[in-house]
Each structure stands twice: as structure tokens, then as C-alpha cells.
Please model this.
Amino acid sequence: MLIKKAKSYGFCFGVKRAVEIAENSQNAVTLGPLIHNPLEIKRLAENYNVKFVNSLDEINKNIKRVIVRTHGIPRDRLEKLKEKQVEVIDATCPFVKKPQEIVEQMSKEGYDIIIFGDKNHPEIQGVMSYAVHNRVFVVLTPEELKNIKLKEKIATVAQTTRKLTDYLKITNFLIENHKEVRVFNTICNATFENQDAVRELSKEADIMIIVGGKNSSNTKQLYNIAKENCESYLVENEDEINPEWFKNKKLCGISAGASTPEWLVEKIISKIKDVT
Ligand code: SF4
Model:
């Protein structure tokens, strides 16, 4: 049986970069877990002594370095962190930094700011905190815009993981109803690249193995796409691999969720090779 990996799977650029930063930072803490994968968090703690704290209050004088996660933190929390006289290592993804910078610049120029996204998501809480005025509105649908009295100058950005087609509904509404709209496409394609790749591979494979957390929504999405096209299984570790699955199969496709490290994917592949 042949084993083939999807063209794009696993860690995105921003997460890969954050993990590398953590590995090179040794003896640091992250503000919240770096990624949603307990095995990877354990590996960073055991091999690099990089642990995590849940709040600023837990940062005491024994902690010398603090890593900011990929989706960034609100500006006032960053300031408070700096006051604690720790070395701040910023692993905010550059694709998240971009909307932060745009919101800061456009608000300085007097534009009302519309952010398309979930106001409770840490990335959005960070992005909105960069406005220098309070005319920042976070919306998910054009209907919500109808209730907001906006000025003539409007700038808009999107949460990095949102769908472009949904963002277009917001931007179309704004353009139809206002004179000056500055639209910034801040959507990151990483999630969609993994989804497109799993769709493509599952059409040619006889079986797909998706590696990742069973509670990870992006991993479940990959699994749902795969099982539309062929027999598919979602596994968290190599012990879940069942040799029966591979009987009479010619091509096994592999994909992994955005928080699944490469070493775990390789472990699964070698287990499949062992049992087939
Ligand atoms: S913005 Fe894109 S590349 Fe950056 S962390 Fe998020 S999904 Fe990954």
C-alpha cells in the first residue's frame, strides 16, 4: 500500500514560527498554551522548559521571559507585561500583526473601523485594541452594520481565519452605502489550503487518516471533508491505528490538523507501515 501526504497539512506558517521561537527561548513561559495540542505542549515543557501561565498575575519575579502567542494580545496587556520587567518575546503571527498595524494607522487618520470577526476571539480583542479612538465596530453580518451610524471614512479588516465570501458581504454592504471605504484583505489562507489539499487527496485515496485532536474543530473539518470521498479515520496517536482498516487498500492518504506537530504525523506513518 502506498502512503501519500496531502500537499498541505498540519502547522501553518505562524504556528511553525511560534514553536521555533519557543524552542529557541528555553526557560520561558507562554501567556496561555502555545497551541491546542497537549503532546506538543508537553514536549516543549520537557525538552525546552517552556511552560505556560494563564494570566498576567501568575508572572512572578522568578519568570524572566514571556512569549506572546500567534494571535497576539491587546495593547494594554502588552504594556502591563513590559512593566513586569520580563523579556517579552513576541510570537504574534505577522499575518495578525498586519491588521493591528492597519487599525492603528487608519484610526489615526480618522477612519471609522469595521472589523469582520468574532469579538470574543483573542485575535480580534488584540486587533481592536490598536485603534486610537473608540469608533471600532466588530461585526459578523451586514445586518449588524445597519444599526451603526458610521462616518463617511471607513476602513475595514477581517479576522485572519474568516472566509473571503463572507467578508465580501460586509465590504459590499459598506461600499454600497458609503462614499469612502478602505478595504484591507487580511484573511490568511492557511486553513483553506489544508482543506483543499485533503479534498483533493481523498478523491484519489482508498483510505484517509487524519491526525489531530478529536476536540479540534479544524481537524474535525478535515475529517468531515475526507469522509465525503473515502473511508476515513481521525486518530490522536499511533495506538489508535487498527490494521484491519488497511486490508485491500492501495493508497492511504494522510493529513493533519493545524495544531498537529510533524513528529506525530511521522509516528503515525511508521505505525501504518509496521502493520501493513
Ligand atoms: S494567521 Fe494564518 S499563518 Fe498566522 S497563525 Fe493564523 S492561521 Fe497560522
About this structure: The chain has three domains: 2-8+190-275, 13-92, 95-183. The longest strand covers residues 153-158. Residues 13-92 form a domain with the Rossmann fold fold (CATH 3.40.50.11270).
